[in-house]
Amino acid sequence: MTSWAALAGVFLLLLAGGVGFPMPEDVTLLGAGMLARGGPVAVWQAVVVGIAGVCLADWMLYLAGRRYGAMVIGHPLVARVVRREHVDAVDAVVRRRGALAVFLARFVLGTRLATSLSAAAFGVPALAFAVADGAGSTLFVSAMVTLGYLFRPSP
What we know:
This protein is mainly alpha-helical and about 160 residues long. Helices cover about 75% and strands about 0% of the residues. Helix 2 (about 25-40) packs antiparallel against helix 3 (about 45-70). The longest helix has 26 residues, at about 45-70. It starts with a helix and ends with a helix.
């Protein structure tokens, strides 16, 4: 497999996982780190593509929340992925903490999708979202890719 095909696969899996496809981002990022250890990509490439894929997926959710507001949470496709009680709990945190909630959601399993949708629907400004999401994603992606790299046996 060529490096561009591997990186494109990582990017597409991150986009799909970020908007609800049942493929956790952590698994994809760990796999990207493993590819970097013994395969066709460099660690920096895996990190850059990882950050791009994760942030783009978050922005897709943020823009959907901005466009459709709170009603997007009630959509049947969203309801399959995120329970209403979960969204209510996330909404309360987003209303109180704003961009900090966006940053922290990157590190709490199962909250990112609802947080990105809620951030836009409940008034977190785009610049604040971008900074918080970028910072959280950079830390998270770098850590996951590095772990995948470190714990793969040498080729």
